[in-house]
């Protein structure tokens, strides 16, 4: 049986590495939701570590490249939100260890 799209989408987004931190955007806690509607539109709800992040365009394109690889995805839209605000508490245990944050 095929895993739900959200699970597969999140797994694919683990390939998108924040070049400044060297950790993927899922484990950094930047991705809040990934959903696919009946028309094949994938909506990614996410935040950034800071407003005005210089990597916004890079991350947008990398996210679209990863999710466009699924046959059922016809378009990828990114919903950038600031609430809830990102904090280090959103990072996975693995990301914290990788960055030396205990």
From TrEMBL:
In its UniProt entry, what is this protein called? MIP18 family-like domain-containing protein
* Naturally occurring in which organism (per UniProt): Secundilactobacillus similis DSM 23365 = JCM 2765
Q: For the MIP18 family-like domain, which residue ranges apply?
A: 10-77
Report the Pfam families cross-referenced here. Answer: FeS_assembly_P (PF01883)
Q: What is the lineage of its organism?
A: Bacteria, Bacillati, Bacillota, Bacilli, Lactobacillales
The record's InterPro entries line, in alphabetical order, gives: Fe-S_Maturation_MIP18 (IPR052339), FSCA_dom_sf (IPR034904), MIP18-like (IPR002744)
Gene3D superfamilies (UniProt xref): Fe-S cluster assembly (FSCA) (3.30.300.130)
């Amino acid at each position: 049986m095929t895993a739900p799209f959200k699970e597969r989408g999140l797994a694919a987004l683990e390939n998108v590495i924040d070049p400044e931190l060297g950790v993927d955007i899922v484990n950094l806690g930047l991705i809040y939701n990934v959903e696919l509607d009946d028309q094949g539109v994938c909506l990614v709800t996410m935040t950034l570590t800071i407003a005005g992040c210089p990597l916004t365009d890079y991350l947008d394109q990398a996210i679209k490249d990863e999710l466009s690889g699924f046959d059922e995805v016809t378009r990828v839209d990114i919903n950038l939100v600031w609430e809830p605000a990102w904090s280090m508490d959103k990072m996975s245990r693995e990301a914290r260890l990788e960055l030396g944050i205990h």
